[in-house]
Amino acid sequence: MHYTQEDFTEELLQTISSIEKELLDFSEDFLDKYDPEPVRKYKMEAEFELSGTHPFKPGYHSAVSVLIADEEDSMLIRTISIWSCTAHFLGIPVSAKIIGSKLVGELLDNSAVSVKNELRSFIRENMGIQDKRMV
User: Fold this and answer.
1) Out of 2-11, 24-33, 49-58, 96-105, which region has the weakest mean confidence (pLDDT)?
2) What is the 3-state secondary structure (H, E, C) of 24-49?
3) Contact at 8 Å (CB) between 100 and 89?
4) What is the pLDDT of residue 128?
5) Which residues pair with 44 in a beta bridge?
6) How far apart are CA 83 and CA 64, in angstroms?
7) 81 lies in which domain range?
8) How many domains does the chain have?
9) How much is the pLDDT for 103?
């Protein structure tokens, strides 16, 4: 969803923080939720990525990623952006807020639950394993 600087409210900040927290927790404990046998053939990582200092400052970006690498080091990566804030001047993204620029934010369209399900599906499709809660 697209947000302009006028839409940057405390409610939006809480929504961003809530989604980030839920996906951070998911990325920290997702390996425990998968059967260990098939996983040994693969290297799996989940990572919560965060850059910037505040969600309403240019350069802030948050995302969650899952990486799967097999024994031959072939890699599959699925990254889902959660929130990003950029400054735009005359409709062109700029690296910092300058006089006359406007802040724009992009929030993922799906819920955190939907994102977790998408990442689980990515893992199942590419590794052929089951989430322990789904067994």
Assistant:
1) 24-33
2) HHHHHHHHHHECHHHHCCCEEEEEEE
3) yes
4) 62
5) 68
6) 10
7) 2-128
8) 1
9) 93
Asked, for residue 134, whether it belongs to a domain, the answer is no
The pLDDT of residue 42: 72
The answer as to whether 29 is a domain residue is: yes
Amino acid at 18: S
- pLDDT (0 to 100) of residue 39: 53
The answer to whether position 133 is within a domain reads: no
Burial of 91 (0-12, 13-18, 19+ CB in 10 A): exposed
Residue 135 lies inside a defined structural domain of this protein: no
Q: Report d(CA 29, CA 32) in Å as an integer.
A: 6
Q: pTM (2 decimals)?
A: 0.80
Residue 130 has pLDDT above 60, yes or no: no
Tokens linked to 50? 């965060």
Expressed in angstroms, the distance from the first to the final Cα of the chain is 34
CA dihedral angle for residue 112, residue 15, residue 48, residue 82, rounded to 10 degrees = 80
